[in-house]
Design a protein that fits this description.
Main location: membrane
Pfam families: Polysacc_synt_3
Subcellular location: Cell membrane
Number of strands: 0
Protein name: Membrane protein involved in the export of O-antigen and teichoic acid
InterPro entries: Poly_Biosynth_Transport (IPR050833)
Structural class: mainly alpha
Largest sheet: none
Oligomer: single chain
Strand content: under 5%
Shape: globular
């Protein structure tokens, strides 16, 4: 893939994903008039909890779909992934029943806690299909599926509000249905090219042993990392009101969730390019791809960060009204989270691509410890007010990602030495 083709591919995918994320953002003024901060808190809690669980749903073995060179073994990789997903679904179902009260209290899932296993299962399938399309170099379909998901999310949330009136569960119902329809869209597009999966347990065992570092090291470290990211929702749920969780939820939907999907899309393309170059022994190409991608992220990230930092409250009040002014203040605070994640998150996958999985894991463990320490000190010991805790959280994220970028730089430019 030439440099110009690489840039063009990233630009095209970013446009699709931005459109997908703009749909709920553009419709948010309507959604916030039929759903209050409690409804926003419900969907925020659902997404936060499921984000943690999704990490382990396939054992991160979907990476093997890109890494495996032997085409004849791909059906076994797919079989292992789907088997993992079904087993994990059963485990999550049991955990929801056992720890229902804790989950409802911590994540404010008063009405949607039993949807969690289904959200996790279909998102696992979504990830498996996503990595299949990365292997096939068909990046556009995943981006289009996010548009389908967003349209279904908004449409069904509005339909539920129309049928049931003001409620707290419609946004969450729309969210999970959007994921299911998006997954079905990808499956229909992949159906003709997917190999027929036969569950040969001996072959799947060999695949598991070959890629055991993913479930043994990548899953725990990634789960710790996601827990670290979602800890703010847990601490807000425990120490602050459901309304304050809702205000954070809107700000998070406007700032952090869109950037996470853009970052993931860029990361997927970046990962495929890096793996291809690294397999071929083209170390200089790995380094140039890294620098070029960082440049793209800077061009996109800096202007958006400055806009959010200095005009976030004005924008939120203008679009959503004075009732959501608190969310505007939150947007300005967590703009630091935006710039940290948009610049560094897409690049972190390079450590997996160059076989530095354990190093990546060590950073994720360190980040988790830092965030637990800061949030516990801030919320429990110092009893900081709502905005001060969010500022402390944002500073913690910024510091951890600066350190991550240093690790990535040293690893990439240490190649070949």
């Amino acid at each position: 893939m030439s440099k110009s083709s690489y840039f063009r591919l990233i630009a095209n995918q970013a446009i699709y994903v931005i459109i997908a994320q703009l749909i709920p953002v553009i419709c948010s003024p309507i959604l916030t008039r039929v759903y209050d901060e409690n409804g926003m808190a419900e969907v925020t809690g659902l997404v936060s909890l499921c984000s943690i669980l999704i990490v382990a749903s396939t054992g991160k073995l979907e990476n093997a779909l890109v890494l495996e060179k032997n085409k004849g073994r791909i059906k076994d990789v797919l079989g292992l992934n789907t088997l993992f997903a079904f087993i994990f679904f059963v485990i999550v179902f049991a955990l929801v029943f056992i720890f229902k009260d804790f989950l409802v209290r911590s994540f404010k899932l008063n009405h949607t806690v039993y949807l969690v296993p289904f959200y996790v299962l279909f998102y696992a399938f979504f990830n498996i299909l996503n990595y299949w399309f990365i292997r096939e170099k068909k990046f556009t379909l995943k981006a289009i599926s996010k548009i389908v998901e967003s349209i279904i999310y908004v449409a069904l949330a509005l339909l539920v509000a129309k049928v049931f009136g003001r409620n707290e569960f419609g946004l969450a119902i729309g969210k999970i249905t959007g994921v299911i329809i998006g997954c079905l869209f990808l499956f229909l597009k992949a159906k003709s090219s997917l190999p027929v999966v036969k569950y040969n347990f001996k072959s799947m065992k060999n695949i598991f042993l070959k890629y055991k570092d993913f479930p043994l090291h990548n899953v725990p470290s990634n789960m710790i990392n996601i827990v670290g990211i979602q800890l703010i929702v847990v601490f807000l749920g425990i120490y602050y009101t459901k309304e304050e969780v809702g205000y954070f939820g809107l700000a998070n939907m406007i700032v952090v969730l869109p950037v996470s999907f853009v970052a993931q899309t860029i990361s997927n393309i970046f990962f495929e390019k890096v793996v291809e170059s690294f397999k071929s022994g083209k170390v200089s190409e790995v380094k140039s791809t890294f620098l070029n991608t960082l440049g793209i992220l800077l061009l996109f990230g800096i202007p958006v960060f400055l806009t959010l930092k200095f005009y976030g409250e004005d924008i939120i009040v203008l679009i959503f009204g004075k009732d959501w002014e608190i969310s505007g203040k939150v947007v300005e605070i967590i703009s630091l989270v935006f710039i940290s994640q948009i610049l560094v998150s897409p690049l972190g996958i390079i450590l997996v691509g160059i076989n530095k999985i354990k190093l990546n894991a060590y950073w994720q463990y360190g980040r988790f410890i830092l965030m637990v320490f800061l949030l516990f000190i801030g919320a429990d010991l110092l009893r900081l007010d709502y905005f001060d805790l969010l500022f402390l959280y944002s500073i913690g994220v910024l510091v951890s990602y600066v350190f991550y970028l240093v690790i990535i730089f040293k690893s990439v430019f240490g190649l070949g030495k």
